[in-house]
Structures are given as structure tokens and as C-alpha cells.
Specification:
Structural class: mainly alpha
Largest sheet: none
Low-confidence stretches: 1-6
Oligomer: single chain
Radius of gyration: 20 Å
Strand content: under 5%
Shape: globular
Number of helices: 6
Amino acid sequence: MTDPVDRTNRPDPAGDGAIRDTLAWVLHSIDHPAQAAGDWIAYEVDPARGSAVALLTDPTAPLSRIRRARVLWAALRAEGETAEERAMGSRLAIAAAAAAFLFHGERITSHDDAAMLAAFDAALAERRRQARAAPEAAGGTRGAE
């Protein structure tokens, strides 16, 4: 009987970076599904950078890609399946507008300065709230043991 698996055409798993990267993304998305949605959009827009953070913090990222990502993140804000995805879409759309202004001197949103500052303040307040909640949650878990 012949072997049904043609081993000559099978990629070497350790040597295939694309498969390894995809597996890492899938495993990361299990724990952070909303972040994964934002990163997936960034990857689709700019595969070389591959994540929202990389796209939005790279001063050499083309404005056209930041603009496209902002449009898609705004759609995620409106149409995300969960509240967490919608919040992530909102934060990334705001961050994209900031990156475009910071790195390219371009305004890519119709929101005025006051609305943008209010959005930044809300995002910072949420981050602070999450930072305060994390130690409390860890402390509550230890007390239950």
C-alpha cells in the first residue's frame, strides 16, 4: 500500500513563517477577540505592518493606508458584533485620525477638535478604569482560593 500523504509537497512547519504567524494570530485572538478584529483590519490594509499598533505608530505608514484603516475601523465601531468590538473600532478610528495628523499633518476626520479631545479623554478614562480594575480582579481571585 502506498502512503496517501505526499511528503515531498508538504511545507516544513518550522520553516513556514506564514503558518507560524497565522497560528500566533489565531491563538492571540482567542484571548483578545476585539483586538484581533482591529488587528485583522490593519493586516488587510497593510500586511507589512500587520497590527493596529504597528500601523498607527509607524511615521512612515502611508497616509492612504491609515485613511483606509480609519474607514474600516469606523465601520467596526458601527457594526461590530459585540460592544467590545464596537469600542475597539471607535478607539482605533480616533487613533488613526491622530496618527494621520501627527505623522502627515492631515485631518482625515470631519470631527472638530473638541470632539476629538473628548474622544481621547474618554479613551484615557477607560484605560485608567481598566488599569484600576485589573489589580482588584487579581486580588479578588486570590482571596477566593
